[in-house]
Amino acid sequence: MTSVEIDSDKCVASGACVDEAPEVFDQDDDGTVVLIPGDLTEERIGDARRAAASCPAGVIRLLEGQSSDGSR
Amino acid sequence: MDLATRTVAIVGAGAAGAATATELRSLAYQGDIVLVGAEEHLPYDRPPLSKGLLTGLTTVDRLWLHSASDYADLDVDLRLGHEVEFADQEAKTLHLASGEEIAFDTLVAATGVSARPLGIATGICGVHYLRSIADANALRSELGPGRRIGILGAGFIGLEVAASASKLGCSVEVVEATNVPLEAKVGREVGERLRVLHESHGVRFHMGVTVVEFTTSVGRLAGVRLDNGAYLELDAMLIGIGTRANTAWLRSWVDAAGAPVADDSGIRCDPLGRACEGLYAAGDIAAYFDVRASSHTRHEHRMNAGEQGRFVARSILGANEAFAAVPFFWSDQYDVKIQVIGTPGADAAFTIEETFDDSRRFVGAFRQGGELVAAAGWNAAKHLQPYRRELQSQLLAGRANATPERIPH
């Protein structure tokens, strides 16, 4: 199982994650990232991975479980 | 072209360089990646240097963009603590200060910028610049209750350090040549509010003046004289008066027409991030041709470093799409987070469009001829989203009319 971990203390409220993965991330009133509860489908994992790459503060990390294809 | 047997060398192990390396692997690039950094540190995040790292809110070990094992897992050959003396365009070889050579097929320049030094302050103990962890550690040792700290230049670095120093109990004097802090970046109105915010924390501003003399006592900074005759007694001073691009190692490189591709103002690139055959650039150093502005522009912001870093990875692997991103930056000062999306032109009209909490927070729009060109938020990050979307759709609409083939280098 892949899961998403956020380090919200580092969040700079850019909103980049919401652009990339609006079904996975939201912002609270201060703009700080909030994880939307729910199952991580393949598509959402892809979105979350792009969000992690686009975050300008390294807030988002994907914890890869058993990767299905064994690739990087 | 067999990508699997090629080497991409990335010089500059900051946010842009690290993003290029990781994105190449995300895109399944199988060849070699060498990432060369002048500092001994793993690639790290620089925005906290002027904020949390000075105030103690964060620590160096929280700045790494990825862990050492992440790079190993991605098979990225990290060469840290290595200065590149020059890159040989003909032989496609990097020459490191250590004497080592690294052959490459494709080169990515991501060496960023350095603080522009002030000649009259040369060699004076107590004068600081801020670009690196080492700089931040040296500056931090100067800050504390009652310390008299001067800031030359009310830009992002200057104002953020002023806020951090003030938080730590320092007495802070800001000297700035223009009349409004950060006006070119955030507009007059937000700039004025920033000044008021700082003044409410006891920071004093000396606007429209410059430093003409640094005085020393027993080899250390004692104070500065301003061109209006005023004299400020200081224990230390931070100079933040702009930057110059770290391009010395690329000075011999020329484009197809024989013109140099790099100078102090950066590396001139086409909209694909390419300076010439085999050379790409990303981040602070890179001046991409901006189709809408019809000029080469450079963005010294953290967001841009990641965006261009990932973008050149795609370009290297054959994507033929012009770089298009809405500029975004933020600045944290005291308990205020300022965010700007887009490019506020000097003649754009600024209006506050929404306020919250009795006007303590707001969103404002910059419009030119009625069209939205930028938006600014003052502790209103979430409320900028609709403006971001509008600017992004403008950008996408604009891109449809401008294919890379039609764009001059």
Task: Give a quick summary of the entry.
The complex is a heterodimer of chains A (72) and B (409). Chain A has helices at 16-20, 42-54, and strands at 3-6, 25-27, 33-35, 60-63.
Most strands sheet of chain B: 6 strands, mixed
Overall 3D shape of chain A: globular
Helix tally of chain A? Answer: 2
Which stretches of chain A are low in confidence, meaning pLDDT under 50 for 5 or more residues running? 66-72
What does this molecule look like?
By secondary structure, chain A is of the alpha+beta class. Chain A has 2 helices and 4 strands. Chain A has helices spanning 16-20, 42-54, and strands at residues 3-6, 25-27, 33-35, 60-63. In chain A, the strands form 2 sheets. Chain A has a two-stranded antiparallel ribbon with strand order 1-4. In chain A, strands 2-3 form a two-stranded antiparallel sheet. The longest helix of chain A has 13 residues, at 42-54. The model of chain A is unreliable at 66-72 (pLDDT under 50). Chain B has helices spanning 15-26, 52-55, 68-73, 133-140, 156-167, 183-200, 302-316, 385-399; strands at 7-11, 32-37, 76-80, 84-88, 93-96, 101-103, 106-109, 113-115, 127-128, 148-152, 171-176, 204-207, 211-217, 220-226, 231-233, 236-239, 243-245, 262-263, 266-269, 274-276, 279-281, 286-290, 295-298, 328-333, 336-342, 349-356, 361-368, 371-378. In chain B, the strands form 7 sheets. A 6-stranded mixed β-sheet of chain B has the order 3-2-1-7-21-20. In chain B, strands 9-16-10-11-12 form a 5-stranded parallel β-sheet. The longest helix of chain B has 18 residues, at 183-200. The two termini of chain B are 24 Å apart. The relative contact order of chain B is 0.13. The chains are: A alpha+beta (72), B alpha/beta (409). Chain A binds chain B through residues 10, 12-16, 18-19, 27-31, 49, 53-58, 71-72, and chain B through 15, 19, 22-23, 25-26, 28, 45, 47, 58, 62, 65-66, 73-74, 302-303, 305-307, 310, 328, 330, 332, 337, 339, 379-382, 384-385, 388, 392.
